[in-house]
């Protein structure tokens, strides 16, 4: 594994996420294609919380304090308990970008990290530090795809009675 590749992916995905969100109206940011789906605002709130409370924390504990208890997280539960739909989109996006900059600075400042060091927390299935880094970059891609799907669904819903059939299928 080349850690610099994954760190650069984290840096490159941030402006892509911003680009997908920047022209959305407040209505579109809060719109869900289905009751059980997340809105774009809920996605960015999730990314913000994950940046602060998940990947960096778990990677840091695995690298520097492998025997320490890793705090539990509840990404699904946070959507409601933290009132994601009530949050200010601009503040959340700004907060996430600040946290991402902090994460990148922290990652680039790591001195000879042991990527093979294993997390000893039983509910994390003995993951290695390298697994957390790779998953962090992959997590961004999953949510980029989710934001693109939300754009597609919103655009399609707004176009009725017209349909984007001619665009093709993905």
Highlighted features:
7 helices, Four Helix Bundle (Hemerythrin (Met), subunit A), elongated, 0% strand, single chain, 170 residues
Coarse shape: elongated
Radius of gyration (Å)? 18 Å
Q: Which assembly state applies to the chains in this document? A: single chain
- Coarse structural class: mainly alpha
CATH architecture: Up-down Bundle
Under the CATH scheme, which class? Mainly Alpha
Order of helices and strands: HHHHHHH
Percent strand = under 5%
Within CATH, the superfamily carries the name: dinb family like domain
Provide the residue-averaged pLDDT. 95
Percent of residues in helices comes to 55-70%
Count of individual domains: 1
State the end-to-end distance. Answer: 30 Å
Unreliable runs? none
Give me the count of strands.
0
- Number of DSSP helical runs: 7
CATH fold-level assignment? Four Helix Bundle (Hemerythrin (Met), subunit A)
Give the biggest sheet. none
């Amino acid at each position: 594994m080349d850690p610099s590749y994954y760190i650069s992916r984290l840096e490159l995905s941030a402006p892509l996420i911003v680009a997908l969100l920047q022209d959305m109206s407040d209505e579109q940011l809060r719109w869900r294609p289905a009751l059980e789906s997340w809105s774009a605002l809920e996605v960015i709130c999730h990314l913000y919380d994950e940046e602060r409370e998940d990947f960096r924390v778990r990677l840091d504990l695995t690298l520097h304090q492998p025997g320490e208890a890793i705090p539990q997280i509840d990404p699904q539960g946070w959507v409601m308990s933290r009132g994601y739909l009530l949050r200010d989109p601009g503040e959340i996006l700004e907060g996430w970008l600040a946290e991402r900059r902090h994460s990148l600075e922290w990652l680039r400042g790591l001195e000879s990290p042991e990527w093979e060091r294993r997390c000893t927390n039983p509910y994390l299935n003995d993951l290695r530090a390298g697994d957390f880094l790779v998953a962090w970059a992959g997590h961004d891609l999953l949510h980029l795809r989710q934001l693109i799907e939300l754009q597609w669904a919103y655009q399609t819903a707004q176009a009725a009675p017209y349909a984007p059939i001619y665009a093709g299928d993905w």
